[in-house]
């Protein structure tokens, strides 16, 4: 390739990225302080350098050019020239090949290699790929399911983990986008009642150097290098078309896709981290830096609200624009239905202190493309003032760690939690007030990817993370777990029976609580990580779902399927609307009554009694919207408790679920009028029948 063959003109500063035109391709990149920006082309088969062009034009902060005869599939990258002055926040180094922040595809996964990074880094850095967005926009796609929040059942999954060991997924599709949408996977999710799959990060990422040098990897993917490119590790050939095929297949099945996104940090780390993309274009603006007592910025000290070395400055106009462009792209072009924002409090820092009126929140709320997508916050980061549960705008849902900890502690048998447990059961209205936040605001979970699985929660009292090669120092130490007599797997039938019952108790509490239930993928299969509660670096059977179930595991799966179905078939259990909640105009429940085992109404001192571990709640439909009438009984005592059910003028109470039974076929469809002996550590659900 020579300049005589490819005519280089100034082009346009917008849109950013590589954009095909009728005669070639326009290239535009933000780098306000560079003295020169080089655009480099590479051969598509060998990545051998072909030629570099100095971008001939700069408009404001954007360098740009147009090159004729460039076609889709062309590989490219950038090099920036200028003074490398870390104390001024500048990391210009022409030896470092840079990924275009607006690239839509890279040609291979990014893997850390210190030898290849030293000097000229182009052997390590994947190349950006020019794509033809015009052809993609012409494709007809299925309609979005647009499932209501009241119907939403979230299922957290990893593209590779959900498929790698599935016996019905062809070997060549395991671990891929196309494998994740295999009919066998869809069938399982539909049977479980899932309406939305929340995939761990699918944007291009790089495992951290210190992990890679140990021979491990970043399996979860929370270390992004680009916010537009789908991760090529999960693709056979074309990550864009294969990701879109996955989305379309889920949509045809009525299942939404929620994408876990990481806008709080990048893989470039802190001062000594690698220069991969953003740092080489505009380090000083893209990241946040500490300030001294006089407010002077120290560009050699990165703010670390993420715990991963740096913090993205989403308050800076260019960065905010890039994040918004990314979100719109994943919705409009890739087809996703919403996002779960990792360490979302960082996005509300404007730029250092959190505000629910931050520019990011205002911008996303007024955006017509993003107005009706699901927005889920992990409402904290590790920086100063970073815990912000309940403080996000009303159009957001929030992951509720108080629900997790309260439910775990209650079923473990911890005292003094009954009152808070009841509050979590009915939507955590102490955190998300009536009239201000929807009953669906709380995203409830008892397990998440970063912690114990449900099976391990009742099998291990302590973490066992030795496989992570950090001497078992990593991972959370406050797990609220229990082993019930033996640490790890047991051959004792009584211990195993109690563990299974506790799993049923935890799962049914999750599903019957007001809010959006979040199921950790594999919990329904009784997946174990052998006590590892921080398996981020384990790309092996520790994380991959095992689909070969024994009888006990199949029994628990049957239970999970039935309990979710019970929620879905009910109006009240999935959306309780009270008369004093003016967030909506209608209400479907006339009465919520709380009872002691003797049938008396609970009073204040009952809730405050630290030894109170058993109660019942009655949910009585208003009649206009539903005639449903339920009683839910919870007993966390180590002994059976005799309960007096509410007296009915006619009919009786039919037992729908009792967690004492390990097999669903053993669930009795008993009718009870007055007294019921509630088994120790169990839940019962009754519905009025006439």
Could you walk me through the main structural features you see in this protein, from its secondary elements to its overall organization?
With 690 residues, the protein is of the alpha/beta class. Among the domains are: 8-137, Immunoglobulin-like; 589-689, Immunoglobulin-like, CATH 2.60.40. It is 20% helix and 20% strand. It is built from 15 helices and 27 strands. It has an eight-stranded parallel β-barrel. Helix 10 (401-412) crosses helix 11 (418-425) and helix 13 (493-512) packs parallel to helix 14 (551-568). The longest helix has 20 residues, at 493-512. The protein is elongated and about 90 Å long. It starts with 7 loop residues before the first strand and ends with a strand. 50% of the residues are buried. The mean pLDDT is 96.
Number of helices: 15
Query: What portion of the residues fall into strands of 2 or more residues?
Result: 15-25%
So what's the CATH class of the domain at 8-137? Mainly Beta
The largest sheet is:
8 strands, parallel, barrel
Please state the average pLDDT score: 96
Q: Within the CATH hierarchy, at the fold level, what is the topology of the domain at 8-137?
A: Immunoglobulin-like
In the CATH hierarchy, the architecture of the domain at 8-137 is Sandwich
| Widest sheet, order of strands | 10-11-12-15-16-17-18-19
The coarse overall form would be elongated
CATH superfamily of the domain at 8-137: Immunoglobulins
Q: Ends: how far apart? A: 83 Å
Got a strand count?
A: 27
Structural class: alpha/beta
């Amino acid at each position: 390739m020579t300049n005589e063959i490819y005519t280089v003109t100034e082009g346009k500063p917008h849109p950013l990225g590589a954009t095909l035109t009728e005669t070639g391709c326009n290239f535009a990149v933000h780098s306000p302080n560079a003295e020169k920006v080089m655009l480099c082309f590479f051969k598509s088969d060998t990545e051998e350098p072909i030629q570099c062009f100095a971008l001939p034009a700069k408009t404001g902060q954007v360098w740009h050019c147009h090159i004729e005869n460039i076609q889709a599939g062309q590989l490219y990258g950038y090099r920036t020239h200028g003074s490398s002055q870390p104390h001024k926040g500048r990391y210009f180094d022409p030896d470092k090949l840079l990924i275009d922040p607006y690239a839509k595809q890279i040609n291979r996964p990014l893997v850390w290699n210190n030898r290849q990074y030293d000097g000229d880094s182009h052997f390590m850095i994947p190349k950006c790929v020019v794509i033809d967005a015009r052809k993609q926009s012409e494709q007809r796609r299925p309609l979005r399911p647009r499932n209501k929040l009241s119907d939403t059942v979230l299922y957290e999954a990893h593209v590779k983990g959900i498929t790698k060991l599935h016996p019905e997924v062809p070997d060549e599709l395991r671990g891929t986008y196309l494998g994740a949408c295999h009919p066998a996977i869809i069938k399982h999710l539909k049977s479980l009642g899932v309406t939305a799959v929340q995939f761990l990060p699918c944007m291009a990422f790089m495992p951290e150097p210190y992990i890679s040098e140990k021979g491990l990897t970043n399996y979860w993917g929370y270390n992004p290098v680009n916010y537009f490119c789908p991760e090529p590790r999960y693709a056979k050939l074309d990550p864009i078309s294969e990701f879109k095929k996955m989305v379309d297949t889920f949509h045809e099945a009525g299942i939404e896709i929620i994408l876990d996104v990481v806008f709080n940090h990048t893989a470039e780390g802190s001062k000594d981290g690698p220069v991969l993309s953003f740092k080489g274009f505009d380090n000083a603006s893209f990241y946040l830096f500490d300030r001294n007592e006089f407010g002077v910025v120290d560009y050699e000290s990165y703010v670390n609200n993420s715990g991963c070395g740096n913090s993205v400055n989403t308050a800076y106009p260019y960065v905010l624009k890039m994040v918004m462009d990314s979100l719109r792209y994943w919705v409009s072009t890739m087809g996703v239905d919403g996002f779960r924002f990792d360490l979302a409090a960082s996005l509300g820092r404007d730029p250092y202190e959190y505000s629910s009126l931050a520019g990011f929140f205002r911008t996303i709320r007024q955006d017509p493309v993003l107005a009706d997508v699901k927005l889920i916050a992990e409402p904290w980061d590790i920086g100063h003032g970073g815990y912000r549960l309940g403080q996000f705008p009303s159009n957001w849902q929030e992951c509720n760690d108080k629900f997790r900890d309260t439910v775990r502690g209650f079923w473990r048998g911890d005292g003094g939690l009954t009152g808070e447990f009841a509050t979590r059961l009915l939507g955590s209205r102490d955190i998300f007030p009536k009239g201000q936040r929807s009953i669906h605001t709380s995203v409830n979970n008892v397990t998440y990817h970063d912690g114990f699985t449900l099976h391990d929660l009742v099998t291990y009292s302590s973490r066992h993370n030795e496989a992570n090669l950090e001497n078992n120092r990593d991972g959370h130490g406050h797990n609220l777990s229990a082993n019930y007599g033996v640490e790890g797997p047991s051959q004792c039938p009584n211990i195993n029976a109690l563990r299974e019952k506790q799993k049923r108790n935890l799962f049914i509490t999750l599903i019957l609580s007001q809010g959006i239930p979040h199921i950790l993928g594999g919990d329904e299969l009784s997946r174990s990580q052998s006590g590892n509660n921080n398996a981020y670096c384990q790309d092996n059977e520790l994380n991959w779902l095992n689909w070969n179930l024994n009888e006990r595991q199949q029994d628990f799966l049957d239970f999970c399927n039935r309990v979710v179905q019970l929620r879905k078939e009910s109006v009240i259990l999935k959306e309780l609307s009270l008369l004093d909640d003016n967030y909506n105009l209608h209400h479907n429940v006339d009465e919520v009554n709380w009872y002691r085992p003797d049938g008396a109404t609970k009073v204040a001192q009952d809730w405050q009694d630290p030894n109170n571990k058993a109660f019942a709640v009655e949910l009585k439909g208003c009649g206009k919207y539903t005639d449903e009438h339920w009683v839910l009984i919870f007993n966390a005592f180590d002994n059976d408790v005799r309960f007096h059910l509410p007296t009915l003028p006619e009919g009786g109470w039919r037992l729908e679920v009792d967690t004492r039974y390990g097999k669903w076929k053993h669930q009795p469809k008993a009718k009870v009028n007055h007294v019921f002996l509630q088994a120790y550590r169990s839940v019962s659900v009754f519905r009025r029948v006439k």
